[in-house]
Amino acid sequence: MLKIAGIGPGNPKYLTGEVLEEIKNSDYTLAFKRVKDSLRGIDPDIIEVKRVADLIEHLEKEKDLLLLATGDPNFYGIVDFIKRKGIGIEKVYPGLSSFQYLMGSLQKSWTGASFLSLHGRKDSLSGKDIDKLTVILTDKENTPSYICKRLDALNVKGKIHVGFNLSHDDEFIVTKNIGEKIEDISSLAVVVIEREMD
Predict the structure, then answer these.
(1) Number of H-type helices and E-type strands within the chain
(2) Would you state the pLDDT for residue 123?
(3) Do 161 and 173 contact (CB within 8 A), yes or no?
(4) pLDDT (tens digit, 9 = 90+) per residue, 130-178?
(5) Domain that holds residue 15
(6) Domain of 167: which CATH number?
(7) Which of 43, 120, 121, 134 has its CA 20 to 30 A from that of 189?
(8) What is the predicted pLDDT for the residue at 112?
(9) Same domain, 118 and 76
C-alpha cells in the first residue's frame, strides 16, 4: 500500500518529525529528482521516479512504498493525481507548503486568502481571479514576471510578493508594485498578490 508524505518547501529542516520517522523506517522510499536531491543527506537510498508509470511499476513489485512530494501533497499536490489514476493510498502525511513558508517570511496573515495554481496549467488568469489577497503557484511558463505583466495589463493595482527557491540557500524574496519589472531568477516560485480594492 502507498503512503505519501510532504517534505515541506525543500530544505530538510522543515520535515516534520513524523515524516522523518517514516523515511527512516520505510523499506522503499520514492521521490522525483528535486525531492531526492534535497534529501540526499537524510536518506541516500531514495529511489528516483520520473513519472507516475514508474510508481505503478514499483507498486506491482513491492507491497509498501513511501512517496515523497514537495510542500503539502494535498495542496495542489500529487494526492488528487494519484487518486485519479485509481491508486489506493493508505495514509497522507502533510508537510509545510511553500506558500505558508512565504507568508511566514512576509509576516502576513493568510486568513481569507484565495489560492490559484498555474503550475502545469494553461493561463486562465483574469482580473476576476485576483481577490484582496491571492496566492499563486507558478511554473516555467506562468512565471512571476509574466503574472506581474498580465495583472498590469488587466489594470489590477497593488503589491506583488515573490519568493524564489524558498527555504534553500539561494532563497530570494522580493516585493514590487504590480507592473514593475521582476527578474525570474528561478522556476521555483510562489507569488502573493495584495490587491488594492476599489
Answers:
(1) 6, 10
(2) 62
(3) yes
(4) 889 999 999 998 999 999 999 999 999 999 999 999 999 999 999 999 9
(5) 2-96
(6) 3.30.950.10
(7) 43
(8) 94
(9) no
